Amino acid sequence: MIDPRKLPDTPELMIAGPGELHEEDLEALGRQVIAHYGDLWVQLHGDTLEALGRVMGASEPPYLMPGTGTTCLDAGIGSLFEPGQRVVVADTGFFGNRLAEVAEAHGLEVTRVPVPVGEVVDVGALEEAASGAAGVLSVHVETATGIRHPIEDVAAMCRRRGLACFVDGIASVGGERVEVDAMGLHGVATASQKGLDAPPGFGILALSPEGKQRVAERSAPVGSWYLDTRRWDFYRDEWGSWHPSPVTMPSNLTLALCSSLRRILEQGIDAWVARRARLAARLRAGLCELGLAPVAPDGHAANLVVAMWSDRPAALQRYLAQECNIMISGGLAPTMGRAIRIGLMGRTATDEMVDRVLEGIEAALKVLPTAPEAPPA
Ligand SMILES: *Cc1c(COP(=O)(O)O)cnc(C)c1O
After folding, report:
1. Backbone torsions φ then ψ of 246, nearest 5 degrees
2. Chain region(s) in the chain for CATH 3.90.1150.10
3. Residues 244, 178 contacting (CB under 8 angstroms)
4. Which of 91, 101, 143 is the best mutation target for the ligand 1 pocket, counting ligand atoms within 8 Å of the beta carbon and taking the most?
């Protein structure tokens, strides 16, 4: 059996998530377990929720659920909508497809609006498809393409039409400006391990006051005990002075997340996002100079994941891992086998690492065979 204390060395992560932890957060993660109730926990949990609310621009405290980002796609969609309702889903790629699958799993009728590869969602097309629907679901940053979609415009359209607007912000919160209340979003789900630079293990869901109102007014029960946001409200409201969550919380993960949120808020969320944007722009410009083209159209490239077309992504990944000790990602539908994706998350989101990636790819392009790889089956 593997001895987890004697792992072989692994390459530094610059994949499309998760990122590596900062040293201080690693220290927080590695301390002894504390109880998930009592005064110390109540303060840690409360401060963490407050910090998450500030980062997400949400006046209502977000939900912090052990699990992953997808846990909160499930919780958000399952709580905001009722079985039999119709929702319109922007089919932005791998994670747009997941939104549709999650909606279907909750008994919703789904209308998919295709989004051509390399383009942003067409708000007019969503609006046309949304006549008579209950809501619209969209990914903010589609990790498969590195494209940032115009969720403010989607939200404005939803507001005009009285539709609920739910966003997958898993690859955007912490790396892009996300203002749940001010943008008029009803719900935004994210995860601990991407733009928040924390370990994987938490889904995070912010509902706006209007979003919470919709949940309060639903007539059918939520088809899950764990994922019903009102269950989490109950414990926070009724047991908040002692045990504010319905389940045993991973206290070490919370410590690491809190430690990371402190760092983000010390810099200020605007400065934090601006720094990530500058880094992403520099990486993209460097890769363009090497002859690669971004998947994202001008002005819509994401800050946490840079996706570039490549006819030999596997060879580039292999070269970087073997020669530079850096792990990057390949494509994911619809860019599978046709792109590389480089994450700017966590400890390795630095100028120095961007330089190393650029040097590595420049060297790889000089020595690798120029023949394109066979496209995926
Ligand atoms: C990573 C990611 C997911 C999946 O998140 P998990 O934490 O693995 O559940 C979903 N959507 C987007 C946009 C992502 O980047």
Report:
1. -75, -10
2. 10-18+269-367
3. no
4. 143
Rounded Cα gap, residues 328 and 288, in angstroms: 17
Token pair belonging to 286 = 């460097």
Distance CA 63, CA 233 (A): 9
Which residue has its alpha carbon closest to ligand 1 atom 5? 69
Residue 248: phi and psi, rounded to 5, are -65, 120
Tokens of 131: 């006549």
Residue 290: its H or E element: none
CB of 139 closer than 6 A to ligand 1? yes
Q: For ligand 1, say whether the CB of 137 is within 6 Å of any of its atoms.
A: no
Q: What is the pTM of this model?
A: 0.97
User: Ligand 1 centroid to 39 CA: how many Å?
Assistant: 33
Q: Which of 79, 38, 21, 71 is nearest to 260 (CA)?
A: 21
Pair 60, 230: CB distance under 8 Å: no
Q: Which CATH architecture has domain 10-18+269-367?
A: Alpha-Beta Complex (3.90)
CA gap 42, 50 in Å, rounded = 12
Contact 326, 11 (CB under 8 A): yes
Q: How far is the centre of ligand 1, averaged over its atoms, from the C-alpha of 343 (Å)?
A: 13
Fold category of 24-264 in CATH? Aspartate Aminotransferase; domain 2 (3.40.640)
Rounded to the nearest angstrom, the gap between the alpha carbon of residue 34 and the centroid of all alpha carbons in its chain is 28
pLDDT along the chain (377 residues), means of 10: 95 98 98 97 98 98 98 98 98 98 98 98 98 98 98 98 98 98 98 98 98 97 97 97 97 98 98 98 98 98 98 97 98 97 98 98 92 71
Distance between CA atoms of residues 182 and 152, nearest Å: 9
Give residue 152 CA to ligand 1 midpoint distance, Å.
20
Residue of 72, 73, 95 best suited for mutating to test ligand 1, as the one with most atoms within 8 Å of CB:
95
**Tokens found for residue 132:** 């008579």
What are the start and end residues of each CATH 3.40.640.10 domain in the chain?
A: 24-264
Distance in Å, CA 76 to ligand 1 centroid = 14
CA of 242 to the centre of ligand 1 (A): 32
